[in-house]
Amino acid sequence: MNTIAVLTSGGDAPGMNAAIRAVVRAGCESGMKVYGINNGYQGLIDDDLRELNIRSVSDIIHRGGTMLHTARCLAFKKEEGMQAAIETCKKYGIEGIVVIGGDGSFRGARDLSLRGIPCIGIPGTIDNDIVCSDYTIGYDTCLNTIMQMVDRVRDTVESHSRCMVIEVMGNRCGDLTLNSGIAVGATAIVIPEISSDVEKHVIERIRRTMKTDKKHFLIMVAEGIGGVAELARKIQDECGVETRSLVLGHVQRGGSPSAKDRIVASLMGYEAVQLLKKGESNRVIVIKDDKIVNYDIYEALNMQRVVNTEVYNIAHEISI
Ligand code: F6P
Prior knowledge:
Strand content: 15-25%
Distance between the termini: 58 Å
Strand order of the largest sheet: 3-2-1-4-5-10-11
Bound molecules: 6-O-phosphono-beta-D-fructofuranose
Structural class: alpha/beta
Number of domains: 2
Number of strands: 11
Helix content: 40-55%
Oligomer: single chain
CATH topology of the largest domain: Rossmann fold
């Protein structure tokens, strides 16, 4: 294999730059030409790419976001868009692509692989929602960002003896909410995997905790559950505690990647190039039991999420 390319797709995540750096350096060190595609699959359709060398990726390992920019590309879901992308690959002699992104990005990688362009996926998303992998790049940084933001909020919540209902990102996966909830000692945690009777659950938790003389409360709610302002009003009416709501939003996606994200991204980026060199296609690199392994993308996309109810129950038992 002489020429490969790398792109980032979907929501950006801290650590994507470290993965790009590893792909470019590993590719160049193997004597390959490496292209960086801008704006995800859209750049492949638009012929928006440039050759990268080992110095093009200097001083990016510590930066959040992605130097290649990213997009959620609807045009790529249509055959016309896909064919335009394949034409670009032919034009530049691209024989393999490393796709850094989430499950939507892997669907694109699978479709390109099926059409003769070998692709290797690297899980890059704050959501930790790639079922086949124990970890996705960006998750650790994001978790720490949420924790730091909520620690700040806690100062004011405690000072005013208030309740704060905080909405956390995560797409349809509750990992960010559950684990940040544990890290900040939330009184109640609401995740999409266990979300029946949200109001009842939260109000019961607050009432129970109030009996132990607690006067301030942090309630962590996963996005998608929605209605944090409405839930805050309900809590205020039912529990008699002044309550505010806060949507943390995109601040969660930014910032310098943690050591864990830089290391995992670097190792995965390197591994992606090794797989392409071996002639592999349609694989996603994952972490399983602390080891870097890979799965068929089709198989990976069809795995079912198993919710860790034990951790959820422990979180509630010790946050009283
Ligand atoms: O996948 C990352 C993520 O931040 C999700 O947590 C969230 O649901 C979504 O992206 C937000 O997307 P956008 O940046 O397009 O609003």
